[in-house]
Amino acid sequence: MSISKELYKKILIPLNKTKNLQNSINKTSNLVSPLITNFEKWSGKQIKLQNNEIEPINLQSNVFAKILASPVRLDRVSKTRLPQLLLNQLNLNLKDKELKLSGVNGLKAQHSYVLNSFKILQKNVKAAAGIIPLHVLSSGKMNQSGLKIDVSNVLTSFKTDLLGEVTRQLFELKPNPQGDIKLIYDKANHQTVFFTENSKGSIQICFNLSLLDACEPLHKAWESDSIHILSSENITLLIQLYKLLKLIEQN
Amino acid sequence: MSRVIETSKAIIKDNVQILKHIEKFTLPRSILDSNSTIEYGTFIKVTYRRFMRLQPLVSRRVMVRDTYTNYIRCKYRYEPVGLKRSLTLDEPSISQSELKEQIYNSLQFIVQAVTYSENISSVTLRRDITLARQILKNLLTVEYEKLKGDSEKKWQYKENQPTNSNVIDFNIEFNHLKPFNSKLPKDKENKFVAIRSFDECLIYLNKTLKTIL
């Protein structure tokens, strides 16, 4: 069956469609490439906000923010990763044959980290193999060095050292009535860290030193029941104090 | 040489893309006013959506994003309000308006953590942003650590879970913050103490910043 040429053309590509096609080609050629228009959708880069309205919250002088923001490290005892400042650094010096727990984190010697709870450490750490750095343990250097370690000694001397260091610094403190941290010594209060509101209605952090027996003479030397200190000036001491209080807390 | 492509919504640099419009992620402080017309239920929905929208900004890793989503979901849907705080601090329960303020501040905190800091001139603000980002990162790491043992039901917060699950222990009943008996298995006790040391510090931070992280 033969059809006219014109009808044949109409069936294949309707005339009005060809016009549309031509139009759309013209339109797209004027558009910008989607590479540019929607690039943020698929660039795969880290996304951040441009925000000019944030208010400072002074995390720099907040002792808890400082502790929580420290880099995460693996705890050898509980096998959990925690911020470094919540743990204690264990330094192993094979040359001097010395194993020491330290309240201050540094990059000295070869180190691992253990929980900050005296009770748990005493209960769980019976042998040095449970806490010394894993890479030292696996390399066999430990056996070659012939180092013998009395773990309970390490623990007690750590506690005494940290206690001595913090108490010494506490005695040298200069109180500041405008300070945002309150130190008290109250045997009747069982909380080591708690919060009160001051006269201006802002929250004040209180550290209770009653767990530290060595601080009793300090308390007697104060003019009132408590002293105030500035957190921005004493941030390192406050971190150590917090760690010490949590170390000897018994629950 | 660094190249910058600017589109209508973002500025894309070598290693970072900065979103120009932040209305989708933030809320005006006036929402907390006592005469605000927004109801409590709406407020919860509005903030929940914003927290969820921030998910792609929290990290590029799927694992971290999932942890964040589940953390927010658990906070909103399953966690008993105020229980975590009352276990550590001797405090009465908080009012609805205080809770609203805490949720608002928490949203601001996360927004701050994902803000681009290099074009901000104030050093204090830049440090605040860095610290907030590190805290958020550590918080999500510990959230992941909490549920590490629950390999099978790891990310499913369901109401009828077995009672020994980590989800119940760490995120719903907070057994690690309660005084626990010595009959616990050794591993569990150690993990309880470790997570407790983090959560206690976080609660203290919440108290000082008036947040509910």
Verbal overview:
The complex is a heterodimer of chains A (251) and B (213). Chain A is an alpha+beta fold and 251 residues long. Chain A has two domains: 59-166, 2-Layer Sandwich (Hypothetical Cytosolic Protein, Chain: A); 175-248, no CATH class. Chain A is built from eleven helices and ten strands. In chain A, a hairpin with a 5-residue loop joins β8 (193-197) and β9. The radius of gyration of chain A is 33 Å and the shape is elongated. In chain A, 26% of the residues are buried. Chain B has 213 residues and is mainly α. Chain B has one domain. Helix content of chain B is 53%, strand content 4%. Chain B contains eight helices and three strands. Chain B has a three-stranded antiparallel β-sheet with strand order 1-2-3, with no helix packed on it. Chain B is globular, with a radius of gyration of 19 Å. The termini of chain B are far apart. The model of chain B has no long low-confidence stretch (mean pLDDT 88). β1 (46-49) of chain A pairs parallel with β3 of chain B.
